[in-house]
Every structure is written in structure tokens, then in C-alpha cells.
Specification:
Arc Repressor Mutant, subunit A; 14% strand; three-stranded antiparallel beta sheet; 21 helices; alpha+beta; 2 domains; globular
């Protein structure tokens, strides 16, 4: 059984959310709720957020201790809100996730900043890491190990959670920078050659396992059996951004170099850490490439790219269109769906009437489409991208969207598009304001309209159609 040499052993850890098993559903729900809470006193913000946590399915009867733990874990690990001088305000990462509903992007952004030490753990635990000299960005290091292994061997290499835990996370040679990723790969390879086994107990490998799981949600890693994990070759651009990054929260660096700090020194870095996590990252584009996300191989990706280029050069009369430039994620798929719907109905002559509306026009919908009888159809697209299928009986409409829906009545549609690795679901709601007036859906005025609905009664599932020229 492999053991890290005692002088190099240090078990690194971070906050483990109680909602880890449902993390994608919880984060997108909480980001939406937090983004809508105005900056206010720490106490009042906590009370409002606790109320929101209680509204999450299954939490109504939970004890206040559990509710408080959810709140602090959401803040500690993901930095969804910032506490400064007694005032709490929503963080940029929560606002972005609430607006985009792109969990794959959100996890990339989260992992891009995540490091040890960081204020995501308690000050006395940060102190232990400082005294050990830890200076470690886990995802960057893991990806560098993959890179070193594949460059040396000339073939695809997989790593297990056990190998990442024992040979990287719990080894100061890695976490303090004493050895290179290539050295680490050599140690892993030697253990394989020697048939060395690892302790795979859940409690032992859980922290490294969390990061691997988050990397899989972020589409950086893929696994076919949840035992060996490989880099996702369709995400090479994003992976290189991690590998080549020089961004680092340096407020602890002097303490690390001295191997000394007081708890007050560490506490003084807390606000800076959360500001760093919520910094402007517009220069680092992690917007999900929808084709890379839904593809299972490079061959499939290239085929989808060719089809897309042909489709959009015809439909939009443009050339060299990239998936990310089509607009909000999902609108391109819905545009294609509408064109094929009309074609299937025998009215190809109407396809030129199906148009995507630029966001800056602020008309309250994303796509102007048409019925087979030539009546207009106004479509607001609500897209969520996640690793696993999510609950989707809640949407937020802006004041402009809700007002436009009221004016357009049964000509207004909400297309709820859920894209995951396993499936693409399209759920269509017609005339949301009318449904609200009939008590078929629920609406809470909140910076527009917060809509919740029963899937069986509010709308219908439709097959997502793909344009065939």
C-alpha cells in the first residue's frame, strides 16, 4: 500500500458542501437567489438568503444549523457573496451564473481561481498550509501532470482519483513546488510498474476526488468508468489557459516565504480573497462551446462544425461563424429548430421570416418566428448548460420580457432549453402571463418575474429539431 514519505505528507483539504451530490441544481438555484438580494447589512442579507435556502426542495423542515451551513459553504467555496465592513453584497460569480445559466463555464471560472492557501477554509487551517509552505493551484498542476505524461509517452494517459490524492494532493513535493509535474508522473508510473496499491477509502480521497469531479463538470476531464480520468481533447483551448495561467492571489506569499503568520495576518486577507475570486475575468473567455460540449469525439465535433457552418451561412447569410458568436447559448439551436419546424410544415417560403433579434434592441424576446398560417411567434430562449440533467421548473423573466409577454399574449413563447452531456430537452411555454392569470403557473415579482411551474400542466416537451438543408 502506497504511503507518502512522512516528511512530505500533508493532507490538503477544503470545504465540502453538504449538497455535493446535488451541486449543480443547488448552485444555479442559489446563484439566482443571491443575485437578486440587494447589498445590505450582514445580518439582513443572511436572513434573506436563509429564507431562499429553505425554499429549496427538501429544506423546509431542516434545522437552522443546516441552513446556516449551506449559506456559509456557498460563500466559502464558491465566493457567491462578499462580506466587507458589516455589509454583504452578491458576488460577480453568482451574478454571472444567474444571468448565463452556464454551469460548465461557471465551474471553469471557479477552478481557474481556486488555490491553496485561500480563504475558502478557516484561518487556523490556512495557517497550517502557510507553515507547510504550500503554494498550489490544484487544477493547473493536475493538467500539467497530464501534459507531461502525454508528451513523454506520446499517448493518452488516464489518472485515477487515488493517484491524484496520494501522489499530488497529499504530497508536499507537489503542493510546495519542490518537484515538477513530470517528476510526479514518473512517481505515478513507477507505482504502476511496481503494482503499488492505494488506500481508496472515501474519507481519504474525497478532497482530491472533489476537484476531479468539478473538473469533469467543467468539461476539462472525461471518464468512461469513473475510475480513470482523461483530459478532454475538445477543450484544449481552455486547458491551455489553465496550464499557462500566471494569475495567483498573492496576499499570503510573504507569509509562505517566511513560513510564519498570525491569525490576524490571515484574517486581514479574507476580503481581498473574495474580491479576487469575484474579479473581472472578461479577458479569460470560458463561454461554453456548445458543439464541444455535446460532442463525444473529435470526429463528431468536426462534423457538427461543418454542418453548423453550412447551416448558418445559409440561414444567416454570414461566413466564418463561430458557435460562441451566435448570441446567448441555445439561441442558435432554437433558430435551427424553428427553421426545420416550418420546413417540416411545408412552408419553406416562410423561413426568411425567422430572425434572431440582437440583444441591444431590447424587444423582450430573442427570436421572431412564424406559424404555418403566417402569424408571428415571439420566442424568449432560456438555456441552461450542465454536466447532468437539472430540475427546470423555474425561470426568471426580466421586466421587459414579462411586459412584452403580456402585450403579445398567446403569440409569446418561452423555450426552456436544457443541454447536458446526456440529453437536450426543449420545453415550450405559451403565453406565460395568461397562464399566470389562470393560476396555472406561479409568479413572484422580483426584478421582473420569478416563474415556477408544474411541468405536467404549464407547457409541453418538443423534440429539438436540427436544420437539414
Amino acid at each position: 500500500m502506497y504511503k507518502v514519505p512522512e516528511k512530505y505528507y500533508f493532507r490538503i483539504h477544503h470545504v465540502r458542501p453538504r449538497f455535493k451530490g446535488d451541486i449543480e441544481n443547488v448552485l444555479i438555484y442559489m446563484a439566482t437567489e443571491i443575485a437578486q438580494i440587494p447589498a445590505q447589512s450582514e445580518k439582513d442579507f443572511a436572513e434573506q438568503l436563509n429564507d431562499a435556502i429553505r425554499r429549496y426542495p427538501g429544506n423546509a423542515i431542516r434545522k437552522i444549523k443546516t441552513i446556516n451551513n449551506w449559506r456559509t459553504e456557498i460563500s466559502s467555496l464558491f465566493g457567491f457573496y462578499i462580506v466587507d465592513n458589516g455589509t454583504t453584497s452578491p458576488g460577480q460569480r453568482a451574478i454571472e451564473l444567474a444571468e448565463k445559466e452556464d454551469l460548465v463555464e461557471a465551474f471553469k471560472v471557479f477552478l481557474y481561481s481556486f488555490q491553496y492557501p485561500g480563504a475558502h477554509i478557516k484561518p487556523h487551517e490556512v495557517l497550517k498550509q502557510i507553515e507547510a509552505g504550500i503554494h498550489f493551484k490544484p487544477v493547473q498542476y493536475i493538467l500539467k501532470v497530464f501534459q507531461a505524461a502525454e508528451q513523454e509517452t506520446g499517448k493518452r494517459i488516464g489518472l485515477s482519483k487515488e493517484e491524484v490524492c496520494h501522489c499530488i494532493f497529499n504530497d508536499l513535493r507537489c503542493t510546495t513546488g519542490l518537484e515538477t509535474p513530470l517528476d510526479t508522473w514518473h512517481r505515478i508510473k513507477q507505482n504502476r510498474d511496481d503494482s503499488i496499491e492505494y488506500d481508496s477509502t472515501g474519507d481519504i480521497i474525497r478532497y482530491a476526488g472533489d476537484i476531479i469531479d468539478y473538473m469533469e463538470i467543467a468539461n476539462l476531464l472525461v471518464s468512461h468508468d469513473s475510475k480513470a480520468y482523461y483530459t478532454n481533447t475538445l477543450e484544449n483551448e481552455a486547458i491551455l489557459k489553465f496550464i499557462n495561467s500566471t494569475e495567483w492571489f498573492n496576499a499570503y506569499d510573504l507569509m509562505i516565504s517566511r513560513r510564519y503568520a498570525t491569525l490576524e495576518d490571515i484574517k486581514s486577507c479574507t476580503v481581498g480573497w473574495y474580491n479576487y475570486v469575484n474579479r473581472d475575468m472578461s479577458h479569460t473567455d470560458f463561454t461554453t462551446d456548445i458543439l464541444a460540449f455535446i460532442s463525444s469525439s473529435t470526429k463528431e465535433y468536426e462534423e457538427l462544425q461543418r454542418n453548423r457552418d453550412e447551416t448558418y451561412s445559409q440561414l444567416l447569410d454570414q461566413e466564418d461563424i463561430k458557435t460562441k458568436d451566435i448570441g446567448d447559448i441555445g439561441e442558435s439551436l432554437v433558430h435551427s429548430h424553428e427553421c426545420q419546424r416550418i420546413k417540416n410544415g411545408g412552408r419553406i417560403d416562410l423561413i426568411h421570416l425567422i430572425k434572431r433579434i440582437p440583444t441591444q434592441f431590447a424587444v423582450g424576446y430573442d427570436i421572431q418566428s412564424v406559424e404555418l398560417d403566417e402569424r408571428k411567434r415571439y420566442i424568449e430562449v432560456k438555456t441552461t448548460i450542465s454536466s447532468k440533467p437539472l430540475h427546470f421548473n423555474k425561470i426568471h423573466m426580466t421586466p421587459n420580457e414579462w411586459n412584452t409577454a403580456g402585450s403579445m399574449k398567446d403569440r409569446y413563447f418561452v423555450y426552456r432549453l436544457m443541454i447536458s452531456k446526456l440529453e437536450k430537452k426543449l420545453y415550450v411555454i405559451q403565453d406565460p402571463v395568461g397562464l399566470y392569470k389562470k393560476d396555472i403557473i406561479n409568479m413572484i415579482p422580483k426584478d421582473g418575474a420569478e416563474i415556477t411551474f408544474e411541468i405536467a400542466t404549464a407547457g409541453n416537451f418538443e423534440e429539438l429539431l436540427t436544420w437539414v438543408s
